[in-house]
Amino acid sequence: MYGAAAIVFGVITFLWHDFNTWQQIRVLGNVPHREILVYAAAAIELLGGIAIQWPRTARAGAFALGAIYLMFALLWVPYIVATPQIYDPWGNFFEQFSLVSGALIVYGTIVYAPVGQPNSARPASAARIGYVCFGVCVVSFTLEQLIYLSGTAAFVPKWVPPGQMFWAMATTVGLALAAIALLSGRSALVASRLLTAMLIGFGLLVWLPALFADPHKLFSWAGNAQNLAITGAAWIVSDFLSQYRSASTATS
Q1: Is 130 helix (H, G, I), strand (E, B) or coil?
Q2: pLDDT in tens, 48-57
Q3: Which of 41, 72, 77, 143 is paired with 88 by a 20 to 30 Å CA distance?
């Protein structure tokens, strides 16, 4: 799922000849030969998304995707510095950084447990750092929804009972509980699985209908790809916790 989202990002970039409407790219200004950067980013996303699907090339794919997602995340920093009191740039930074976290976990897991060998009870540093960073990103998701609660409610389909604001508040509480569980380690595996399921629900109920309603709108495609990528990162966290627990049980 994580790799498929990267492939979708690459295809979107090629078709629209742009960086998926990522506003942080504007900080680069009118750079010369901008189209070269566009196609280079698309190629990295496509190749990284394909490479991460197979164990032998997963490490290289994770490195490529982590690097480009980190670049896109860091391009939000000038906006954060310019308007630190506005949370939107912070939220966008952590949305992008959550994808870096997923790549770190894959990279660290593959490095520490090569193909054909059992996982160690102690994952590589990169994987542990990626896990903690993802937990921090979930804290940001919670704050973003809380600060922009009315905007969050507007995304909820009106036909879903008992109401838009109810689900905006319920999902915000769910994100908060997931963040606490991930960072504290208490019920972290269950929390990661429930978080993944909730993100899948966002895709099915919010982003996929938006795509069918207006398939020519770039925002709809980019939103689906972004949600799919974050869902993939959450699934990576869930698998990481599951494997880590199994390895700990086997060595105890």
Answers
A1: helix
A2: 999 999 989 9
A3: 41
